[in-house]
Specification:
Layout: E1 17-29, E2 33-40, E3 43-50, H1 55-61, E4 68-77, E5 86-97, H2 111-116, H3 118-121, H4 125-147, E6 151-152, E7 158-159, E8 171-174, E9 177-181, H5 186-194, E10 199-207, E11 220-229, H6 234-264, E12 277-279, H7 280-289, H8 304-318, E13 322-326, E14 349-354, E15 357-364, H9 369-378, H10 387-390, E16 400-406, H11 407-415, H12 420-423
Parallel strand pairs: 3-5, 6-10, 12-13
Antiparallel strand pairs: 1-2, 1-4, 2-3, 4-5, 7-9, 8-9, 10-11, 11-16, 13-14, 14-15, 15-16
Length: about 425
């Protein structure tokens, strides 16, 4: 639409004739005056019309909530208007569409009901802010990577076997062969290392057939991955991640910090570098001091409550929202994580917790063919079942490592919404395959 002004930019045009377009959010039709609140993806504005027997009066009276309209009029300051302190004196109104019946959801509807009607739920400018934050964050990620010698790759999402393990696979027929949806770009990131790409990144979908209904799990999500060659330890991977996150969050704070504070009541804290680090052994000692015992099924790892408790300890003692948990036992990690030579039961690996939520898993990888075969067999896996992956390391591979980072979990922490369903454009879970 020519000459359209976004509602979030209206303040620049006080005293001028403006044209806006959006949805009718509220309507008050009084005896002498009519008041409209309209919204677009950037904000809201009040429109006023004096009833004088004009055709325009009847058009306004006929409007229903979430009708789409084009409005023209003079934008005038009015300190009595609580919304922004200005309003549009209505001169022109073009109704583009009217809803057929009452809207099926309200802002108070349950999350499941709102997800059924996601395209209506997302009309809220506060929801749109989530995806502007995401856009800024991804742009900043790429800026950092490109400045630091990374190459972007797009790995296949249809794969012959499992990406990491035989569990949580979505299987499908592929022209008579059994294929699965990729759980991770892990194998292909490592292939890029053996191909001499040196440093790579990918932002793309991954799929996990995980029958979990928690606020932190989904069956399809966007994974952010990077892999780097010629490293001496997993410490180098952690160092690059903390610098990367420092830059990404600083860009989000600079561009959206005030909006996030206003919409979600949350300060965007730029994390200082380096991040605190604790080994898994140290983490267990901290939890022991709080008389908290990690459930048996999570031994060698941390359960969600243990992660929250550890994060609170780090916040109380180091005033930091992040903590790297390092040196996981080999029994709790994949076969491709490298182990310490003098401690073969401990891996050169880490998780990153952000406000008590795991957002990253990373490690130095085992690049030596013989050692890799040993570790695959130790996990009870037949090397032949993943022969295309194993072959990558047969003809020379540089020492390398990398990580996978959860985009939706980042958005959960930046907005405080505490549920991946709220920050995913269209959510997929065990019981949700539409819209």
């Amino acid at each position: 639409m020519e000459n359209r002004i976004l509602m979030g930019d209206l303040e620049k045009y006080l005293g001028n004739y403006v044209n806006i377009a959006g949805w009718v959010d509220k309507l008050r039709d009084q005896k002498r005056m009519q008041f409209l609140i309209c919204r677009d993806h950037t904000g809201y504005v009040q429109i006023v019309n004096s009833k004088e027997g004009k055709p325009l009066d009847e058009i306004v009276s006929s409007l229903t909530l979430d009708s789409t309209v084009i409005v023209g009029g003079n934008l005038l300051g009015n300190p009595q208007v609580k919304l922004n302190g200005y309003e549009i004196q209505l001169d022109y109104l073009d109704v583009k569409s009217r809803p057929e019946g009452t809207l099926p959801i309200t802002p108070e509807s349950s999350i499941d009901n709102r997800l059924d009607w996601r395209y209506i739920d997302l009309r809220d400018p506060k929801k749109h802010l989530i995806f502007r934050i995401q856009t800024t964050a991804e742009h900043a990620m790429r800026e950092f990577w490109l400045r630091n010698g990374f190459t972007e790759i797009h790995s296949p999402k249809l794969v012959e076997g499992a990406s990491e393990s035989g569990a949580e696979l979505f299987k499908l027929d592929y022209f008579g062969q059994e294929a699965s949806l990729a759980q991770s770009p892990q194998f292909y990131k490592q292939m890029a290392m053996t191909a001499g790409f040196d440093r790579v990144f990918e932002i793309g979908p991954v799929f996990r057939a995980n029958p979990s209904f928690t606020a932190r799990h989904d069956t399809e999500f966007t994974s952010v991955d990077m892999e780097i060659s010629w490293i001496n330890s997993h410490e180098e991977v952690m160092e690059i991640e903390e610098r990367w996150l420092n830059y990404v969050i600083s860009q989000v704070a600079m561009k959206h910090g005030n909006e996030i504070q206003k919409a979600f009541g949350l300060e965007t804290k730029i994390p200082s570098v380096p991040f605190p680090r604790v080994t898994m052994e140290e983490a267990y000692k901290i939890l022991d001091s709080q008389n908290y015992v990690v459930p048996r099924e999570n031994k060698g790892d941390l359960d969600p409550e243990g992660e929250r408790r550890l994060a609170k300890y780090i916040q109380d003692n180091f005033n930091h929202d992040f903590v790297f948990v390092t040196e996981y036992p080999a029994r709790a990690r994949p076969f491709y994580h490298m182990r310490f030579e003098d401690r073969p039961d401990v891996t050169k690996s880490f998780d990153l917790l952000w406000k008590g939520l795991e957002v990253t898993t990373g490690a130095q990888r085992e690049h030596r063919y013989g050692k890799l075969i040993e570790q695959i067999k130790e996990k009870g896996i037949n090397p032949e079942s993943i022969s295309s992956y194993v072959t990558f390391f047969k003809y020379g591979s540089p020492p390398h490592g990398g990580l996978g980072f959860g985009l939706t979990r980042m958005l959960v922490n930046l907005t405080g919404l505490n549920n991946v369903r709220e920050v995913t454009f269209v959510y997929r879970g065990p019981n949700r395959l539409k819209p």
